[in-house]
Amino acid sequence: MPDHLVPRAHLGVLVPASPTRDPADVGRATLTAPDDLVVRGWATVTVDVTAGLHGVDDGGTIQIALRFPWDGGALQATDPAAPNYVTAVASSGAKLELSWTARAPRPFFKALVARVYDGFLRPGDTVRFVLGDRAGGSPGLRLQTFAEDHLELRVLIDPIATGYPLPVVDVLTFAVRPGPPARLRVITPTLRRPDEPFAVGIVAEDAHGNPTAAGEPVALRVEGLAGAPATVAWPAGARAVRVEGVVGPEVGVARVHARCGALAATSGPILIERADRATYWADFHGQTAETVGVNTADRYFEFARDLSMLDICGHQANDFQITDAFWAHLDALTTKMDEPGRFVALPGWEWSGNTGVGGDRNVLLRHQGRPIRRSSRALIVDASHPETDAPTANALFEGLAGEDAVVFAHVGGRWADLSVGHDGRVERAVEVHSAWGTFLWLLEDALRLGHRVGVVANSDGHKGRPGASYPGASMFGALGGLTGVRADRLDRDAVFAAVRARRTYGTSGARVHVDLTASFPSPVRVWSDDPALGPATSTVSDRASMGDVVTTECDYADVTVRAAAGCAIERVEVIAGSHREVLHVGAGRERVRVSWEGARGRGRDRMFVWDGALTVHGARVTHAARFGEFHPERPFRWSEGGASWQSVTTGNRVGVDLWLDRDDHGVVRIVAGGVDASFDLATLGDEQVVEAGGLGLCVRVVRLGVGCNDAERTVRVPLASEGDTPIRAEVWFDDGHRAWTSPIYAIRD
Predict the structure, then answer these.
(1) Are the C-beta atoms of 390 and 351 separated by less than 8 Å?
(2) What is the pLDDT confidence band of residue 1, given thresholds at 50, 70 and 90?
(3) Helix (H) or strand (E) holding 324
(4) Is 475's pLDDT higher than 80?
(5) CB atoms within 10 A of CB 237
(6) Dihedral, CA atoms, 532, 536, 537, 540, nearest 10 degrees?
């Protein structure tokens, strides 16, 4: 089996009983496609299907299925001049009814279905499918937004018209290459100690975020660093370059500037501090073609290490589709990829129980050779070792008792119901952001239930791009997230210690520095772990850091938030229990920011459509720019009188900035997502919010000035007279990104 394809033993999928003994008797298929296809280009692909031993009966079907992440065109057979037109002709003269479905058998989900009627196919009869048939004026089949060396089509045939199609044995693939370089990214650490060596990564991306070959040498200019050459060669065919051995010799803020041909980029700030711990960047969560994504797990970890230049990566496949063979392979693969000091690869799985029995949880293991505890075997034939099954969240926690494991509560297709089950000894964090959207409500659920958990954010990417999971043109509403891990070194032991101590913060995909500390007017007891979970030691101090659990007799705390990024900081929010302080760091009058955010609800249909427009009366728009939008094809237009757009949110935030010819006069009216509201600029204060129902759906309007990229703010917050006061921070950045800290838990003694 070529290493670019998933071995059949690694793919969990149920195949109905065949009417023949030889799988090849179902039928055969071949594919013809050009070899120069690029993302979002147009293609014509021909698939020839030959009926097998039984032919295909009247009412039987032939399906051409695509994987779940496919965000290319939806095939149609009604308009020959429109995109994605498909034709199918049977050699027998039988008629074929063509339709497109998004509910094909998992893991392929999307399929062209050809139902045979007014005739049938005999053994050896053929059907020629032309996907993207241009004969009638169609531009062809619109391709997906993500590159894939071997995009697989699965042909399934239902020869007996039972409603249970069977896969043919032939593997049909073609390549979709990245587009030309559209931007350059400089990937650097966020926080390191003096003289601690690290790597600088230079990545060229096409318009849809796919790493692509740049080819030209890279000119580097560094501030506050040593060990970086002035010029770096870009090897032929490489999609990134990596410069090892760079150090910051002195305390301060360093940066890297890079130029490659016409493309240029600057890193975010690299803080060089005499700190106990550095910040390492993780994407703990993604899937590949062994379950419901694309590309193999091997390629996934290579992308994380070599192209998105992560420090830490985990693989989280749906457990009900993980075969024993794939589990063994993943175990061996993470052992091979794990390289202390450079890259931490973690074995694990996504416990994918339905919400009614607990909902999605991510399980990460510290050691190899451990059993998987599945929520079900929905797509696994092998029923051996039933004693390892864990059909509920509580059964999962019971099964993990004594295991060296950590669990994150997750929101994906299924959302985690923390009221159904939780064990703080292993469930150490909640995931507040992924490519599925932003889910602060999950953290709020945890705090309301009294859980003392940390915060993480990951991609749950399905496109084989951990650490750089762009939403593309599909149902994913947001850019995948990242987790900042504060650890004293880069290895599994240190990473697990950091996660258990809640020394983590999540971002919506940006590598930004955020720190949270609290000082108290009298000494507090700082615990080595949550004392509610069992015996713990303590020390006495007047300060606490992100993730700490402290007991105190104090009525208040002074909370300091430090943030640094490659763009301006818009605002800092400090939340202490029910108390919230909002600090507008970028306050001013230079522009008007209009944004929309939120989700329809908690479940799968959370996406909310904000297609709309705004108009400005009494002032003239001199410039407008969109922010927070990572779907590059969603239209945005502006003129002197306003702007219009197409946009969706799934809990995340998107918006538009307006620069006006006068800042003290005029009315902005926005009509989008069911909101029809007007804002008088003459009386607009710090912020106005219009609620729109759903789950945090709202429109915000705020004035902004020229912010700073590095900000530190301190506020005094009250502490509850009894019980917990979770103290946390949220930071909003000018480019639309956000970051969320794990709380400090202040317990009234």
Answers:
(1) yes
(2) very low
(3) helix 324-337
(4) no
(5) 7
(6) -20
Integer Cα distance of 141 and 151 in angstroms: 14
- Domain coordinates in residue numbering, the chain: 24-176, 183-272, 279-511, 591-706
Q: Is the pTM of this model over 0.90?
A: yes
Three-state secondary structure readout of 625-685: EEECCCCCCCCEEEECCEEEECCEECCCEEEEEEEECCCCCCEEEEEECCEEEEEECCCCC
Q: How many CB atoms lie within 10 A of CB 80?
A: 15
Q: Which residues contact 677 (CB under 8 A, 6 or more apart)?
A: 669, 670, 690, 699
CA 129 to chain centre: 34
Fold of 279-511: TIM Barrel (3.20.20)
Overall CATH class of domain 24-176: mainly beta
Which of these CATH numbers, 2.60.40.10, 2.102.10.10, 1.20.1250.20, 1.25.40.10, describes 183-272? 2.60.40.10
| 663/676 Cα distance (integer angstroms) | 22
- pLDDT at position 586 is 75
Provide the 3-class DSSP secondary structure of residue 336: helix
Q: Which two tokens stand for residue 425?
A: 């000894």
φ and ψ at residue 722, rounded to 5 degrees:
-155, 155
Q: How far is CA 237 from CA 211, 212, 218, 472, 645, in A?
A: 11, 8, 15, 24, 37
pLDDT in tens, 24-59: 899 999 999 999 999 999 999 999 999 999 999 999
Q: How many residues does the chain have?
A: 749
Distance CA 702, CA 161 (A): 60
Tokens of 100: 């497109």
Among 507-511, 581-585, 635-639, 712-716, the minimum mean pLDDT is found in: 581-585
Asked if residues 53 and 122 have their Cβ atoms less than 8 Å apart, the reply is no
Q: Do domains 24-176 and 279-511 have the same CATH topology?
A: no
Bridge partners for 421 per DSSP: none
Phi and psi for 711 in degrees, rounded to 5? -135, 145
158, β-bridge pairs: 61
| CA angle 239–244–247, rounded 5-degree value | 135
58 CB contacts (<8 Å, ≥6 apart)? 94, 116, 117, 118, 119, 120, 161
* Amino acid of residue 112: L
Q: Are 639 and 602 in contact, with CB atoms under 8 Å apart?
A: no
Helix (H, G, I), strand (E, B) or coil at 448: helix
> How far is the CA of 180 from the CAs of 184, 205, 209, 713, in angstroms?
11, 8, 11, 42
pLDDT in tens, 134-145: 999 999 999 999
591: its two tokens? 């522009």
